[in-house]
């Protein structure tokens, strides 16, 4: 069985869920934080992993 699971990435400013990605929970215990483009804010903002 694969340990990869789908996670949501949410913009920290506008709180919109803009991206879905996979993460191996066995190797990455911490929450994922990426700087991605937010369509609503129209700029690059920090996106953090949220619960399903």
- What is the arithmetic mean of pLDDT? 91
Sheet with the most strands, sense and barrel status: 4 strands, antiparallel
Poorly predicted regions: none
Helix content: under 10%
Q: What is the total domain count?
A: 1
Fraction of residues in β-strands: over 45%
* N- and C-termini, Cα separation: 20 Å
CATH level 3 topology: Rubrerythrin, domain 2
If strands are numbered along the chain, what order do they take across the biggest sheet?
Answer: 2-1-4-3
Which H/E pattern describes the elements?
EEEE
The count of DSSP E runs of length 2 or more, i.e. the number of strands, is 4
User: Considering the protein shown, what is the CATH homologous superfamily?
Assistant: Ribosomal protein L33
Count, helices: 0
Broad structural category = mainly beta
CATH class: Mainly Beta
Using the alpha-carbon principal axes, give the shape.
elongated
CATH architecture: Single Sheet
Radius of gyration: 12 Å
3D structure, described in words:
With 52 residues, the chain is mainly β. The protein has strands at residues 4-11, 17-24, 33-38, 43-50. It is elongated. The two termini are 20 Å apart. The model has no long low-confidence stretch (mean pLDDT 91).
